[in-house]
Amino acid sequence: MRLGRKREGDRAARETQMLGWVLVAPAIAAVVALVIYPLIKGFQQSISSGGILFGEKPGYVGLRNYRDVIHDPVSVDAMRHTVEYVILAVSMELVLGIFVAVTLRKLFPGRGIVLAILILPWALPSVVSGVLWRRIFDPQTGLLNSVLLQLHVIHQPQVWMASARGAIVYITIVHVWGVLPLISLIFLAGLQAIPEEVYSASSVDGAGPWRQFTHITLPLLRPSIAIALTVGTLLAISIFDEIYVLNGTALNTRSILIQVYNTTFVEADFAHGTALAFLLAAVTAALGAVYALVLRRATV
Q1: 73-299 CATH, one of 3.40.50.620, 1.20.1740.10, 3.40.50.720, 1.10.3720.10
Q2: Most buried residue among 44, 210, 232, 264 by CB atoms closer than 10 A?
Q3: 10 Å Cβ neighbour count for 115?
Q4: Are 257 and 280 in contact (CB under 8 A)?
């Protein structure tokens, strides 16, 4: 009797396992077809020379393409610009995100409307945001020049994207404008998880708002800061739409992702383009792993 029940249980377990594999098989096939196979073909392209578009027969060159893009001055400048985007964007997002979250933590009339307005830039596609801000920065009919001229801050229209340093700052502001709502919501969720009793007890002990912020809010926000840092960094590394819409593929603001696009599709140099893309993916994965470790320590 027990042997029969055991056989029935084993058969039911095998049927359940088979059903699980049947249900998961389409997802596995999709991942293999859309992720694994393109990655393998892309890596093969990155270690090959030539290309069918030029009538050349591809040949194995090892890591030569990777060395070429690392020593290419244009790619190096794009990497440097990307680092500047990341540093500026993450710094502004963390500071402004905490400020917005602390401001919205308390209930006040119209808080829901403010939250809805806050989410709007994040809900807009980055291309749409870029088009809107291009109208603002337009040197002839832009809103920014018009307002500054009316206020007599400037005496003639400015070409805002002419300066390399200035253009990077302006593009970063546009990027932060779109990402800040997400970062603020992350911090707001973290603040709402902090018990109000902690602040009440600290007030009884004589702690003012600044001491509460530095000794209670910031330490207890470490998990949220780690998440915001990870999200902000990865989004800043992949900045593309804002740059392309506001300044095209100009060298003074070109990011590494713009360089990948320009090398691969404009210059039709697929070997070096895929090599650069894999380098970017490796750096992004390494940063993601580091941030994951930081997040794990912050939540322990």
Answers
A1: 1.10.3720.10
A2: 232
A3: 15
A4: yes
Write out the two tokens for 10: 């084993």
Sign of CA dihedral 286, 287, 293, 295: negative
Give, for all 300 residues of the chain, the pLDDT tens digit. Answer: 555 565 666 677 777 788 878 888 888 899 888 888 888 888 888 888 765 555 566 678 878 888 988 998 999 999 999 999 999 999 999 999 999 888 888 877 877 788 888 888 888 888 888 888 888 888 888 888 888 888 888 888 888 888 778 899 999 999 999 999 999 999 998 888 888 888 878 777 777 788 888 888 888 888 888 889 889 998 999 899 889 988 888 888 899 999 999 988 888 888 888 899 999 988 888 888 887 787 777 566
Helix axes 73-105, 111-123, angle to 10 degrees: 170
Is the distance from CB of 238 to CB of 255 less than 8 angstroms?
no
The gap from C-alpha 237 to its chain's centroid, in whole angstroms, comes to 6
Q: Which residue has the tokens 């300066």?
A: 163
Q: Where are the beta strands (DSSP E) in the chain?
A: 48-49, 59-60
Count the Cβ atoms, other than its own, within 10 Å of residue 178.
Answer: 22
Domain definitions of the chain by residue range: 2-46, 73-299
What are residue 188's phi and psi, to 5 degrees? -65, -40
From CA 203, how far away is CA 182, in angstroms rounded?
A: 31
Question: Is residue 264 a contact partner of residue 270, using CB atoms and an 8 Å limit?
Answer: yes
Nearest-angstrom CA–CA distance, 104 and 180: 14
Half-sphere exposure (Cβ direction) of 94: Cα atoms closer than 13 Å: 21
Helix locations, the chain, DSSP H? 2-31, 37-46, 64-71, 73-105, 111-123, 126-137, 143-150, 164-192, 196-204, 209-212, 218-220, 222-237, 241-247, 256-261, 270-299
Q: Which two tokens stand for residue 37?
A: 């196979």
